[in-house]
What we know:
CATH superfamily: YVTN repeat-like/Quinoprotein amine dehydrogenase
Shape: globular
Order of helices and strands: HHEEEEEEEEEEEEEEEEEEEE
Structural class: mainly beta
Helix content: under 10%
Distance between the termini: 20 Å
Number of strands: 20
Largest sheet: 4 strands, antiparallel
Number of domains: 1
Strand order of the largest sheet: 1-2-3-4
Strand content: over 45%
Oligomer: single chain
Number of helices: 2
Low-confidence stretches: 1-27, 29-35, 144-160
Mean pLDDT: 83
CATH topology: Methylamine Dehydrogenase, Chain H
Amino acid sequence: MKNVTSLVLFVCALFLYGCSESLGVGNDQSGGNIAKNGSYTKMLVVKNRLYGVSLSDISTLDISDKNNPKLLDKKRLGFGVESIFHHQGLLLIGSNQQMYIMKIDANGVPNLESQSRYFDVEVGSCDPIVAQSTTAYVTLSPNTITGFGNCGIQRNTAQTLLIGQLRSYDITDVKNPILKSTIDVSNPKGLAIDGEYLYVCNSEKGVNIYDIGKNKFAPELLYSSDPFEAYDVIVNNGIITVVGGKNLHQYNLEKQSGKISLKKLSTIEL
């Protein structure tokens, strides 16, 4: 039953918000009606609000009446917006230039609190974001599966910057996020948090699992899987669901003799 539920959640994430209310699950600790989404998602539901990002804007819709959704608000952010993640009343939005943090007000409308550039030069990195407590984790990769292109390219030059990083930010003060650590990862993609573990997809190299329980700002690599295509991940009720290429994989986390590993449960061809 857990496998079926996890698969349904992943399909809901891919098709955005259709199942969020019936499942009643969340991707943070703030409660309420929040769908469980992958880190590359561009739309999500919080209570009776639907938030969606385009390449340059964020839109807020009132979906109290599902037969008659109404546009409440639309704000321009900047070009290259790629992902959106909800965390305790905040929307963390990744673009290929910077991280935006927006706070949802009493009317369900997000307002900009801060924006943090990744590099001094204009580099098109690709960056999903997840968060737990007062820490945000960002992956920056040199290319993308989302079709935007130009990831890892220093614009207006012939130079290619092979950026592959896992970053942690202190977001205690949402108006002033602080970069706390940068870890080199060859080609990181989607990521997910489950308690003390941070799961990071590493493209054709599979999945890395980091310990963030000992020091949340210094993720410690505990495990690297055998190579396979891994682009995004959702963890729910102990089931790790990974999408990669044409396949959807499901795993359990195994702990033996102080070590962890992934045990495959199933593979579904998409």
